[in-house]
Design goal:
Elements (H helix, E strand, L loop, with lengths): L8 E8 L2 E13 L3 E6 L4 E6 L12 H6 L3 E6 L4 E7 L4 E7 L5 E9 L3 E3 L2 E13 L5 E4 L1 H9 L5 H19 L24
Parallel strand pairs: 1-10
Antiparallel strand pairs: 1-2, 2-3, 2-4, 3-6, 4-5, 6-7, 7-8, 8-10, 9-10, 10-11
Length: 201
Protein backbone atom coordinates (compact mmCIF):
# COMPACT_ATOMS: atom_id res chain seq x y z
CA UNK A 1 0.00 0.00 0.00
CA UNK A 2 1.32 3.41 -0.97
CA UNK A 3 1.88 5.73 1.98
CA UNK A 4 1.34 9.46 1.87
CA UNK A 5 4.07 11.87 2.89
CA UNK A 6 3.86 14.31 5.78
CA UNK A 7 2.82 17.72 4.46
CA UNK A 8 1.07 16.28 1.41
CA UNK A 9 -2.47 17.47 0.61
CA UNK A 10 -5.16 14.86 -0.04
CA UNK A 11 -8.94 14.86 -0.38
CA UNK A 12 -11.28 13.55 2.31
CA UNK A 13 -14.79 12.49 1.30
CA UNK A 14 -17.56 11.56 3.72
CA UNK A 15 -20.29 9.47 2.10
CA UNK A 16 -24.04 9.33 2.68
CA UNK A 17 -25.19 6.22 0.88
CA UNK A 18 -24.06 6.64 -2.73
CA UNK A 19 -23.60 10.41 -2.39
CA UNK A 20 -20.66 12.45 -1.14
CA UNK A 21 -21.94 14.44 1.82
CA UNK A 22 -18.76 16.40 2.56
CA UNK A 23 -15.53 16.83 0.62
CA UNK A 24 -12.43 18.90 1.18
CA UNK A 25 -8.64 19.06 1.31
CA UNK A 26 -6.65 18.09 4.39
CA UNK A 27 -2.95 17.95 5.22
CA UNK A 28 -1.24 14.65 5.95
CA UNK A 29 0.55 14.71 9.30
CA UNK A 30 1.71 11.09 9.20
CA UNK A 31 0.84 7.85 7.47
CA UNK A 32 2.46 4.76 8.95
CA UNK A 33 1.66 1.18 9.91
CA UNK A 34 -0.24 2.29 13.03
CA UNK A 35 -2.19 5.42 12.11
CA UNK A 36 -3.23 7.84 9.42
CA UNK A 37 -3.11 11.36 10.86
CA UNK A 38 -4.72 14.28 9.00
CA UNK A 39 -4.99 17.97 9.88
CA UNK A 40 -8.20 19.88 9.13
CA UNK A 41 -7.16 23.54 8.92
CA UNK A 42 -9.59 26.36 9.83
CA UNK A 43 -10.86 28.23 6.79
CA UNK A 44 -10.25 25.42 4.30
CA UNK A 45 -12.87 25.28 1.53
CA UNK A 46 -15.23 22.30 1.89
CA UNK A 47 -18.07 21.17 -0.36
CA UNK A 48 -21.20 19.98 1.44
CA UNK A 49 -24.37 18.28 0.25
CA UNK A 50 -27.51 20.11 1.43
CA UNK A 51 -31.25 20.11 0.70
CA UNK A 52 -32.57 22.74 -1.75
CA UNK A 53 -33.18 25.22 1.10
CA UNK A 54 -29.53 24.99 2.15
CA UNK A 55 -30.15 23.85 5.73
CA UNK A 56 -28.00 21.18 7.32
CA UNK A 57 -28.71 17.72 5.95
CA UNK A 58 -30.13 15.33 8.58
CA UNK A 59 -27.58 12.71 9.54
CA UNK A 60 -30.15 9.91 9.31
CA UNK A 61 -31.96 9.56 6.01
CA UNK A 62 -33.62 6.43 4.70
CA UNK A 63 -32.03 4.70 1.67
CA UNK A 64 -34.97 5.92 -0.44
CA UNK A 65 -34.54 9.53 0.70
CA UNK A 66 -30.83 9.36 -0.17
CA UNK A 67 -31.45 7.85 -3.60
CA UNK A 68 -34.42 10.03 -4.59
CA UNK A 69 -33.84 13.25 -2.66
CA UNK A 70 -33.15 16.56 -4.34
CA UNK A 71 -29.89 17.95 -3.04
CA UNK A 72 -27.32 20.51 -4.08
CA UNK A 73 -23.67 21.12 -3.24
CA UNK A 74 -22.59 24.32 -1.53
CA UNK A 75 -19.15 25.69 -0.74
CA UNK A 76 -18.30 26.40 2.89
CA UNK A 77 -15.24 27.10 4.99
CA UNK A 78 -14.15 24.66 7.69
CA UNK A 79 -15.24 26.28 10.95
CA UNK A 80 -14.48 23.43 13.35
CA UNK A 81 -11.18 24.86 14.58
CA UNK A 82 -8.00 22.80 14.27
CA UNK A 83 -8.82 19.11 14.06
CA UNK A 84 -6.29 16.29 14.11
CA UNK A 85 -8.03 13.29 12.57
CA UNK A 86 -6.35 10.09 13.83
CA UNK A 87 -7.44 6.73 12.43
CA UNK A 88 -5.85 3.55 13.79
CA UNK A 89 -5.10 1.17 10.94
CA UNK A 90 -8.15 -1.01 10.22
CA UNK A 91 -10.15 0.40 13.14
CA UNK A 92 -13.90 1.09 12.87
CA UNK A 93 -13.45 4.54 14.39
CA UNK A 94 -11.36 7.68 14.17
CA UNK A 95 -10.31 9.98 16.99
CA UNK A 96 -10.74 13.71 16.41
CA UNK A 97 -8.39 15.73 18.60
CA UNK A 98 -9.89 19.22 18.70
CA UNK A 99 -8.69 22.78 19.31
CA UNK A 100 -10.18 26.22 18.68
CA UNK A 101 -8.67 28.38 15.95
CA UNK A 102 -6.49 29.92 18.66
CA UNK A 103 -5.30 26.46 19.81
CA UNK A 104 -7.33 26.18 22.99
CA UNK A 105 -7.66 22.44 23.58
CA UNK A 106 -11.27 21.16 23.40
CA UNK A 107 -10.78 17.42 23.94
CA UNK A 108 -11.46 14.38 21.80
CA UNK A 109 -14.33 13.04 19.71
CA UNK A 110 -14.54 9.37 18.78
CA UNK A 111 -16.34 8.95 15.47
CA UNK A 112 -17.60 5.41 14.85
CA UNK A 113 -17.21 4.65 11.14
CA UNK A 114 -16.47 1.97 8.61
CA UNK A 115 -12.74 1.27 8.07
CA UNK A 116 -11.18 3.90 5.80
CA UNK A 117 -11.08 3.33 2.07
CA UNK A 118 -7.99 4.77 0.39
CA UNK A 119 -7.68 5.80 -3.24
CA UNK A 120 -5.45 7.97 -5.40
CA UNK A 121 -4.78 10.92 -3.04
CA UNK A 122 -8.24 10.45 -1.52
CA UNK A 123 -9.64 8.82 1.60
CA UNK A 124 -13.31 7.86 1.90
CA UNK A 125 -15.27 7.78 5.18
CA UNK A 126 -18.66 6.30 6.01
CA UNK A 127 -20.07 7.52 9.33
CA UNK A 128 -21.87 5.02 11.59
CA UNK A 129 -23.96 7.52 13.59
CA UNK A 130 -22.84 6.75 17.15
CA UNK A 131 -20.05 8.84 18.71
CA UNK A 132 -18.25 9.35 22.01
CA UNK A 133 -17.43 12.85 23.29
CA UNK A 134 -14.38 13.16 25.55
CA UNK A 135 -13.63 16.32 27.54
CA UNK A 136 -10.10 17.60 28.27
CA UNK A 137 -10.26 15.95 31.72
CA UNK A 138 -10.94 12.60 29.94
CA UNK A 139 -14.51 12.19 31.14
CA UNK A 140 -16.69 10.78 28.35
CA UNK A 141 -20.29 10.30 27.25
CA UNK A 142 -22.12 8.65 24.36
CA UNK A 143 -23.48 10.93 21.64
CA UNK A 144 -26.27 10.28 19.11
CA UNK A 145 -27.61 7.03 20.53
CA UNK A 146 -30.99 8.19 19.23
CA UNK A 147 -29.58 8.51 15.71
CA UNK A 148 -28.22 4.97 15.87
CA UNK A 149 -31.69 3.69 16.78
CA UNK A 150 -33.25 5.82 14.02
CA UNK A 151 -30.80 4.40 11.47
CA UNK A 152 -32.06 0.91 12.33
CA UNK A 153 -35.68 2.03 12.11
CA UNK A 154 -35.35 3.53 8.61
CA UNK A 155 -33.31 0.64 7.25
CA UNK A 156 -29.87 2.19 6.96
CA UNK A 157 -28.37 -0.50 9.20
CA UNK A 158 -29.60 -3.66 10.91
CA UNK A 159 -30.00 -4.26 14.64
CA UNK A 160 -26.96 -6.54 14.40
CA UNK A 161 -24.99 -3.70 12.81
CA UNK A 162 -26.02 -1.39 15.64
CA UNK A 163 -24.77 -3.89 18.21
CA UNK A 164 -21.46 -4.20 16.36
CA UNK A 165 -21.10 -0.39 16.21
CA UNK A 166 -21.77 -0.04 19.94
CA UNK A 167 -19.25 -2.78 20.71
CA UNK A 168 -16.64 -0.88 18.70
CA UNK A 169 -17.46 2.22 20.73
CA UNK A 170 -16.97 0.27 23.94
CA UNK A 171 -13.51 -0.75 22.71
CA UNK A 172 -12.66 2.91 22.17
CA UNK A 173 -14.03 3.75 25.64
CA UNK A 174 -11.70 1.14 27.10
CA UNK A 175 -8.79 3.08 25.59
CA UNK A 176 -10.17 6.31 27.08
CA UNK A 177 -10.55 4.92 30.60
CA UNK A 178 -7.10 3.27 30.41
CA UNK A 179 -5.58 6.57 29.24
CA UNK A 180 -4.07 4.87 26.20
CA UNK A 181 -2.71 7.02 23.39
CA UNK A 182 -4.09 9.25 21.92
CA UNK A 183 -6.12 9.85 25.09
CA UNK A 184 -3.21 11.44 26.92
CA UNK A 185 -2.95 15.04 28.21
CA UNK A 186 0.32 15.61 26.35
CA UNK A 187 -1.47 15.58 23.02
CA UNK A 188 -2.93 19.02 23.77
CA UNK A 189 0.51 20.53 23.05
CA UNK A 190 0.63 19.21 19.48
CA UNK A 191 1.12 21.72 16.68
CA UNK A 192 1.42 21.07 12.93
CA UNK A 193 5.14 21.95 12.76
CA UNK A 194 5.87 19.24 15.31
CA UNK A 195 4.54 16.36 13.19
CA UNK A 196 3.71 13.11 14.97
CA UNK A 197 6.77 13.44 17.18
CA UNK A 198 4.96 16.02 19.33
CA UNK A 199 1.98 13.77 20.00
CA UNK A 200 3.41 11.91 22.98
CA UNK A 201 3.04 8.55 21.25
Amino acid sequence: MERWISGETITVRSWIGERVGLEGLVTVVADDADHLALHFVPGTVMHRLVPPDGVTLPRVLSPREIAEGEFRVIEQRWTGGHLLHLTPTGAPWSVHVRWTEGWEFRGWYVNLQEPLRRGDRVVDLVDLFLDVVVTPDLSWQWKDEDELAEAVRVGRITAEDAMRIRTAGERAIADITARRWPFVPEIAAWRPDGGMGALGR
